[in-house]
Amino acid sequence: MLDVRKLRLLRELSHRETIAAVAEALAYTPSAVSQQLAALEREAGVPLLTRTGRRVTLTPAAVALVEHTERILAQLEQAIAELAAIRSELTGILRIGAFPTAVRTILSPALVALSSAHPRLELRVTELDPALAPDALRAETLDVALIQEYDYAPVPADPALDSEPLFEEIVHLAARTPRPLAEHRESAWIASTPGTLCHTMTVRACQAAGFTPRIRHHADDFGTVLALVAAGQGVALVPAFGTRDCPPGVTLGALPMRRRTHLAYRRGAGEHPAVRAARRALRESAGRRDR
């Protein structure tokens, strides 16, 4: 009989690619992860990992087993949701992850509505970059999260997650002097931290315009980004949500590109009463954002 906990480790290895990353995400030691995966190989009766020095790759048998694991874990989530629906009142902990501008503008009103309707539901919020949200959902450190993609930085579908559109925004070129994007090849640029979707979007959008941006400053808060633009420190790409407190002296030029925000949760968990309540509150809050 295959152990679901060991299968989950294999699934995480397929996403995170190293045993050390799996161990850190799931609060194991690397040696414990290796031992559990070795035990899973014995239970499966076929090789699951190919080891080259310190690196490991999944065999075709392991890839197939991960696909089965995704379905098994989704069915377990669905079973948990159905059991929770039997209870007459929402209780327990609901962990929500969102990016900074959404915490202020969308999540805060949703939290007020959730707390009022379900006073015994304990809400916990984590502010994080959307690129980190899928890993956190799979690791069960979040239950609901806002994830994003840009036209120049699409995010591949994750078989462990379900998602639904929440809203989309225009991306603006923020500068002191309005000029087309292609004319900023010699400008200094302000971008988010490398590894974030916003940073990837900036680099790829500039490359599509024919140049690689010369990034001088890194800042993840769009208020800080716009302040740097106002101070003459460079130009930046800023989604509409980040431009609400645009300082004097900064011009915003709408570009033919969009940022799309989705609600995400583990596959099978969408009808869990707490998750369903959060989905409804967040959709209603997002619908009021432009009123």
TrEMBL record:
Pfam families: HTH_1, LysR_substrate. Coiled coil: none annotated. Residues 267-291 are annotated as: Disordered. Keywords: Activator, DNA-binding, Transcription, Transcription regulation. CDD domains: PBP2_LTTR_like_6. Residues 281-291 have a biased composition (Basic and acidic residues). Residues 2-59 form the HTH lysR-type domain. Belongs to the LysR transcriptional regulatory family. This is LysR substrate-binding domain-containing protein. It comes from Nocardia beijingensis.
